[in-house]
Amino acid sequence: MSPGANGDFKSRVTVVGSGNWGSVAAKLIASNALKLPFFHDEVRMWVFEEVLPNGEKLTDVINKTNENVKYLPGIKLGRNVVADPDLENAVKEANMLVFVTPHQFMGGICKKLKGKVTGEVEAISLVKGMEVKKEGPRMISSLISKELGINSCVLMGANIANEIAVEKFSEATVGYRESREIADTWVQLFSTPYFMVTPVHDVEGVELCGTLKNVVAIAAGFVDGLEMGNNTKAAIMRIGLREMRALSKLLFPSVKDSTFFESCGVADVITTCLGGRNRRVAEAFAQSGGKRSFDELEAEMLQGQKLQGVSTAREVYEVLNHCGWLEMFPLFSTVHQICTGRLKPEAIVHYRDHKA
């Protein structure tokens, strides 16, 4: 049921995930849950329990200080955000679920929630990534829908979390499959004067933009680490955007060209290639001449946050290889081969620019 359909009905929201972006999402939602009459004030946030260096549990500290001291220090989440380490309990009464975890954890989360999510529940995925199956890639929104039997929209965009946390203006795109009414509800829940959200009738296009741009960001990081300059970086971003569009349309012919001009498309490519953790770690990888592994750099540089681009590059490579498309996507293919040490970082510009 969508909020407002029944005067007495109030939606309950749970955020599944509590990393950097999950905490910012909870902050955005919490501010609107207090203002909008058709949402319960309380916003639950599932936290993967961790013990901090001082011996305290992360959930206890979040609930005591109203701050995610590990993944979003210095930012108050809103007094109505309640951290819960028990996944089933966190989603128990919610009819609106916001998924925002590293994509590699989503399979396990959906397995745990299978059969526990009942009634008229709507989901939205802020997760960037895909599962690769023998029959082809499965997007995270499809995983949620299939495993839990609920509809899932997606929210993607040029969203570096720390900037939104301090309320710098930014945009995002909600991709929806059928109901515009549900999409509008999600837009209301996320929109603030500094966070402008637009609905687009193209789930796969929006979600693939959010997923594939992390591979382009890895390429941009290689360019920065090798000090190749702005012209080279612009070329890599353009080629990357073109490969994103070509692959999206091969996988899902319904994907719209116009989606790539939304925040989830060109804007997200730009911000992720200028800032963002994938670019930063790939830069360090290239500076080391590929001698330091991404796992080592991730552990050293990201304080527990996860890289998405390297695993997505592997998943994309598997799809391209399986379908016989490697030659059509030289940038995507090259990124994976650099990540695995088959090619040196310098190879990022040493390929023929095939027309995809």
UniProtKB/TrEMBL annotation:
Keyword flag Electron transport: no
Domain Glycerol-3-phosphate dehydrogenase NAD-dependent N-terminal: 13-178
Reactions catalysed according to its record: sn-glycerol 3-phosphate + NAD(+) = dihydroxyacetone phosphate + NADH + H(+)
Record's keyword annotation contains NAD: yes
Chain sites annotated for binding NAD(+): 17-22, 48, 105, 161, 277, 306, 308
Enzyme Commission (EC) number: 1.1.1.8
Residues covered by the Glycerol-3-phosphate dehydrogenase NAD-dependent C-terminal domain: 202-349
Pfam families: NAD_Gly3P_dh_C, NAD_Gly3P_dh_N
A GO molecular-function annotation: glycerol-3-phosphate dehydrogenase (NAD+) activity
Catalytic machinery residues: 213 (proton acceptor)
InterPro entries noted in UniProt: 6-PGluconate_DH-like_C_sf, 6PGD_dom2, G3P_DH_NAD-dep, G3P_DH_NAD-dep_C, G3P_DH_NAD-dep_euk, G3P_DH_NAD-dep_N, NAD(P)-bd_dom_sf
Cited Gene3D superfamilies: N-(1-d-carboxylethyl)-l-norvaline Dehydrogenase, domain 2, NAD(P)-binding Rossmann-like Domain
Residues reported in the UniProt entry to bind substrate: 128, 277-278
EC main group: oxidoreductase
GO biological process, one term: glycerol-3-phosphate catabolic process
Keywords attached to this entry: NAD, Oxidoreductase
Matches recorded under NCBIfam families: glycerol3P_DH (TIGR03376)
Family indicated by similarity: Belongs to the NAD-dependent glycerol-3-phosphate dehydrogenase family.
Protein name: Glycerol-3-phosphate dehydrogenase [NAD(+)]
Taxonomic source organism: Brassica napus
